Automatic annotation (TrEMBL):
Pfam families: TGT (PF01702)
GO biological process: tRNA modification
Protein name, entry field: tRNA-guanine(15) transglycosylase-like domain-containing protein
Record-annotated tRNA-guanine(15) transglycosylase-like domain positions: 142-333
Entry superkingdom: Eukaryota
Residue runs in coiled coils: none
């Protein structure tokens, strides 16, 4: 704890998260352990809230507190109430605050430990549901509300490890969350998924899944993309197409553009200069290049090229950024909750919330990863043998 504070006082970051005591052992946890977690987290928070003296001037860190209490609403509410409670005289002297919340800049929620505890409570055995699938989504709002109901609403609220755009929309509408991380979008890129969704949802539907809903992206490991020379997104234009559309006087339709390095790459026609003396006299603007296609990234994924991950990460984060930007723009135009609820309903009707694409993409990623690893020939022989046995059995069944 003291080492953490020493690092913070040395670096003086713009934002610092207080250390929480989140149990690292498998759930469920006893009431005694949850109480201990709250007490320790408050102790850590008290320490990091002490002002830092720099050149005889007191400097206060921008501390974001991790909201603890597990999946017990009473425990989460008790932690929040303690933040508003008056400090002891010696604590006031150390922090120069009347209560802990007065020194807090915002609130942070980590969803991973909540999902793990909810899973353990629902199914004490090992659950077959993958940890990357959005589970127990409907149980999260009540837990977060228990932490926030007594706290001021004008401070930023951050959530880590959401797993889908559907969860993001729910947490914005029900809880008023302000900031989200991009973990799930980066994880999708690792498994070869190019995200492709937009808010508000389009009025037309393309490429429906078996459920009648669109997937939130494309599994580029799939062999159907081996000859697909389209850009990564159906809902966004690439930079070159948008540039041509702007030059066309006949087209005045407003469209979204994906500005990532995969959809809007730039070719520079300037030579690489190693000194000022080599700089050209004339200035030339970089040119937009055609977008990288699904077939090209499909090839990169199957040949283990690192550039596939780089291109997909930039694309997915750009799509997520556009998603959040469109939500902000929508709330500025129509701030009433009814309009937002209607658009969220349309989004859920358009895009699959079960994220079945994650299962298929991860399975493809594993198979390709093993295909070039140790023991590849033995696995291929075993797979060929199994396929031959299945074919023989099918022939026998037909004869009978």
């Amino acid at each position: 704890m003291h080492a953490y504070r020493s690092y913070a006082t040395a670096v003086l970051p713009d934002i610092i998260f207080s250390l929480p005591d989140i149990p690292f052992t498998p759930p469920p946890y006893s009431q005694k352990r949850i109480t201990k977690s709250i007490e320790r987290s408050l102790c850590y928070l008290l320490d990091i809230l002490k002002p830092v003296e720099i050149n005889n001037v007191l400097y206060r860190l921008n501390v974001f507190v991790q909201m603890v209490g597990g999946i017990k609403e009473t425990a989460r509410s008790a932690f929040a109430t303690t933040l508003l409670g008056e400090l002891e005289p010696n604590e006031k002297e150390q922090t120069l605050l009347n209560n802990l919340d007065a020194g807090i800049s915002g609130y942070v929620f980590d969803l991973v430990p909540l999902r793990q505890s909810l899973r353990a409570e629902t199914d004490p055995t090992d659950s077959p549901t993958p940890i990357y699938r959005p589970t127990f989504t409907k149980s999260l709002p009540s837990l977060l509300k228990a932490s926030l109901q007594s706290l001021p609403s004008d401070k930023p609220r951050i959530v880590n490890t959401t797993l889908s755009p559907h969860e993001i929309l729910m947490l914005i509408k029900d809880i008023g969350i302000d900031v989200f991380d991009s973990f799930w979008a980066q994880q999708a890129a690792s498994w070869g998924i190019a995200l492709d969704f937009i808010f508000p949802a389009p009025s037309f539907r393309t490429s429906p899944s078996q459920t009648g809903k669109r997937q939130i992206g494309h599994n580029l490991y799939d062999s159907k993309f081996s000859n697909d020379f389209n850009r990564l997104s159906d809902d966004f234009l690439d930079g070159l197409s948008y540039s041509k559309q702007k030059q066309s006087s006949s087209s005045k339709e407003a469209t979204d553009v994906c500005s990532c390095s995969a959809c809007s790459p730039i070719w520079s026609n300037k030579p690489l200069c190693h000194s000022v003396a080599e700089m050209p006299d004339t200035h030339s603007e970089p040119e937009l290049a055609p977008p990288y296609t699904r077939a090209y990234i499909h090839h990169l994924l199957h040949t283990h090229e690192m550039s596939a991950h780089s291109l997909l990460v930039t694309h997915n984060i750009t799509i997520l950024d556009a998603f959040l930007r469109n939500i902000r723009n929508f709330l500025e135009r129509e701030p009433d909750e009814l309009s937002l609820s209607e658009e969220i309903r349309r989004f859920e009707e358009t895009y699959d919330s079960e994220l079945q694409i994650l299962d298929t993409a991860r399975a493809s990623w594993v198979s390709v990863d093993l295909a070039r690893g140790k023991g590849r020939l033995a696995r291929e022989r075993e797979a060929a043998k199994q396929a031959e046995n299945v074919a023989i059995q099918s022939t026998v069944d037909e004869c009978l």
